[in-house]
Amino acid sequence: MQSNVTVLDIPIAAITMKQAVAAVEDFITAKKTHLIATANAEMIMMAQQDGELASILKQADLVVPDGAGVVWASRYLGHPVPERVAGYDLSQQLLQQAAQKGYRVYFFGAAPGIAVQAQAVAVARYPGLHIVGVRDGYFSVQEEDEIIAEIKASQSDILLVALGVPKQEKWLAKNLHRLATPVAMGVGGTFDVMAGVVERAPLWMQQASLEWLYRLLQQPQRFLRMLALPQFVLRVLYAKK
Length: 241
Ligand code: UDP
What we know:
Layout (H helix, E strand, L loop, with lengths): L3 E4 L2 E4 L3 H14 L3 E6 L1 H9 L1 H9 L2 E4 L2 H9 L10 H15 L2 E6 L4 H12 L4 E6 L8 H11 L3 E5 L4 H13 L3 E4 L3 H6 L7 H5 L3 H8 L4 H4 L1 H13 L1
Parallel strand pairs: 3-4, 3-8, 5-6, 5-7, 7-8
Antiparallel strand pairs: 1-2
């Protein structure tokens, strides 16, 4: 099992992208269910107020350092993670691996039509990829049993869930035992990016730890949510005192 570092009471795996992919392979061969979360500063701040989310993250099988803020915090607190493992990049690595190894993948979430577009992109990008089911993320409580039965029947090895934070983590924590998929991961806006509806920051901005700024400029409606970022920095600075 990987070692964890703790950022504001949330355990983050101190692993590289390569190790994360290897851990997922182990999860698939272990034949039991596993929950993967991708933590950024916003999610960690949300978990400070939301005990249910905090407890899900503490019990998750793998929480990767998704954001530059988390990488910075781990370094500042003296327990550095080796590198950023962005959720989008991890999902792409897993899709590539799935195409090579014949893993079955299910796409659940995003607005109607988006996951289907993401599926088309994924199949073109990773030849041989077997996507065994696609379903959008807008559903009523009455539809949940049917969705769960459909995912279970698909016998997926990897389930990517894009319902946004913290809905996707809570939905998975509640239903994972009924889904019978060895790997389930919350992927936020990944399908939107794959479908081309939302653009990811250029590489230089990602490398300069400025992806948050690009996201803010592209989706100004995120402004209120993103006020969590300076609060996160202050909390981390204070935590070290
Ligand atoms: N979404 C969904 N069902 C919902 C709420 C959101 O499928 O009830 C989708 C939404 O369409 C988008 C994704 O969840 O594709 C959330 O993307 P965002 O970039 O906001 O992710 P986060 O920052 O929360 O990880």
